[in-house]
C-alpha cells in the first residue's frame, strides 16, 4: 500500500433520521494515513427517549462516544481480524428501520476483508412502517376515543390540539420509552384538561384519559408485524434461489425498540423452523461502541476515509440550483428563451448548476 501524505482535515458524516439523528467525525492529522489503527471516530447523537427518561433530562446531545478503529470491521490486516471478517459467498440482509420508512435489502459478499458487497441479491422490500406509524396509529385511537368530546374546542384550545399533543409529545415521551409487549402491562392515564369523562375507563375521571394496554399491544403488534413481513419477504425470496441468508443486520432508530427486536426474533425463529435455516438477528450493542442509531454516520466516516481503496459510490439522482443564463445566439440557438423579470428586453435561457449528476462518482 503506497504511503500517502495527506493534509490535515476533519471528516464528518451526518445521518438525519426521523427517530434519532447522529453525527460521526474524526480528525485526520497531516501525514497520518486514513487507515491508521490510532485513528478514532467519535459519534454525537440524540439521546434515545428512554435514556432521557431515566436520567431525568430533556432531549439533549450525548457526550461524544469514542470508537477507536480498527475494531471488528476495521482496517486491520491482522490474522485475527481476517478470521472474524465476513466470509465470501455469504448473504446477509440489512433491515433499516427508521422513523418514516423501513427497508430490507439482501446483499452478496464478494470479498471478506476488507468487506465488499457485490450486488443486491433480490429486489428490495420497503414500506412506511417506521416508528412514526406507531404515533399515527395512536392518533387514530385518540380520535375514536374523543370523537364525542367537541366541547374541548373552547377557550382557545381545540380538540385537534389536544390529540396532537397526546399523539406526539405524550406518546413519544411517556409511552414509547417504557412499553414492553407482554401480558402484564398496565393501562396508561394521560392528562387532558377539561375532559369531563374518561371514555377509556369504566371508572371515569375528569381531566384523565385512560389508554387500555390491550389497545397499545394491538398497535405495536400490527406495526412490528409489518416490519417482520419485510424481513421474511427477503428471506423467502432468497430461499427461492436455493440460498440461505446468514444474518439480518438491524439498523436505524426504530431498531432500538425492544418490542420490535423481540417480534423480529420470534418471526425469525418461526422462519428458521419452517425452512431448516439458521438466520440470526444481529444488533450492534454499546459494548461494540456502535449502535443501530449511529451505524450509518460512523460508516459514512469510514467510507470517506477509505475512498482510494474502498468501493465507488455512484449518484442515483441529479440535483442542483436553477441558474438562468443570458441568451446568446451562438451558444443557445434554437433553445426556448424567457424574458427578464426586471428588464423584459433581456432574454435568458433556463439552466441548472449541477451539484451532482446521475451515475457520476
From TrEMBL:
Superkingdom of source: Eukaryota
Q: What is this protein called?
A: Uncharacterized protein
Amino acid at each position: 500500500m503506497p504511503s500517502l501524505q495527506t493534509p490535515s482535515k476533519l471528516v464528518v458524516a451526518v445521518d438525519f433520521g426521523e427517530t434519532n439523528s447522529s453525527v460521526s467525525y474524526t480528525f485526520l492529522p497531516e501525514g497520518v494515513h486514513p487507515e491508521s489503527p490510532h485513528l478514532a471516530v467519535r459519534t454525537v447523537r440524540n439521546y434515545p427517549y428512554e435514556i432521557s427518561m431515566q436520567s431525568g433530562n430533556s432531549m439533549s446531545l450525548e457526550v461524544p462516544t469514542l470508537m477507536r478503529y480498527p475494531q471488528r470491521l476495521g482496517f486491520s490486516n491482522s490474522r485475527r481480524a481476517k478470521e472474524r471478517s465476513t466470509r465470501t459467498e455469504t448473504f446477509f440482509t440489512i433491515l433499516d428501520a427508521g422513523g418514516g420508512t423501513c427497508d430490507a435489502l439482501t446483499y452478496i459478499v464478494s470479498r471478506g476483508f476488507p468487506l465488499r458487497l457485490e450486488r443486491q441479491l433480490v429486489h428490495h422490500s420497503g414500506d412506511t412502517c417506521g416508528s412514526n406509524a406507531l404515533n399515527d396509529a395512536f392518533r387514530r385511537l385518540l380520535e375514536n376515543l374523543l370523537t364525542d368530546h367537541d366541547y374541548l374546542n373552547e377557550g382557545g384550545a381545540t380538540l385537534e390540539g389536544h390529540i396532537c399533543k397526546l399523539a406526539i409529545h405524550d406518546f413519544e415521551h411517556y409511552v414509547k420509552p417504557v412499553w414492553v409487549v407482554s401480558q402484564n402491562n398496565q393501562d396508561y392515564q394521560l392528562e387532558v384538561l377539561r375532559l369531563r369523562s374518561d371514555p377509556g375507563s369504566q371508572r371515569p375521571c375528569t381531566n384523565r384519559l385512560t389508554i387500555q394496554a390491550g389497545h397499545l399491544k394491538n398497535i405495536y403488534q400490527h406495526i412490528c408485524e409489518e416490519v417482520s413481513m419485510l424481513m421474511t419477504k427477503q428471506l423467502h425470496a432468497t430461499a427461492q434461489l436455493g440460498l440461505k441468508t446468514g444474518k439480518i443486520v438491524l439498523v436505524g432508530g426504530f431498531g432500538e425498540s425492544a418490542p420490535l427486536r423481540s417480534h423480529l426474533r420470534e418471526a425469525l425463529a418461526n422462519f428458521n423452523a419452517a425452512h431448516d435455516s439458521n438466520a440470526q438477528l444481529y444488533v450492534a450493542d454499546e459494548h461494540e461502541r456502535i449502535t443501530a442509531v449511529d451505524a450509518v454516520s460512523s460508516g459514512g466516516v469510514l467510507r470517506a476515509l477509505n475512498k482510494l481503496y474502498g468501493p465507488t459510490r455512484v449518484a442515483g439522482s441529479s440535483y442542483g440550483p436553477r441558474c438562468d443564463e443570458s441568451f446568446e445566439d451562438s451558444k443557445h440557438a434554437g433553445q426556448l428563451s424567457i424574458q427578464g423579470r426586471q428588464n423584459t428586453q433581456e432574454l435568458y435561457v433556463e439552466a441548472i448548476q449541477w451539484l451532482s449528476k446521475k451515475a457520476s462518482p
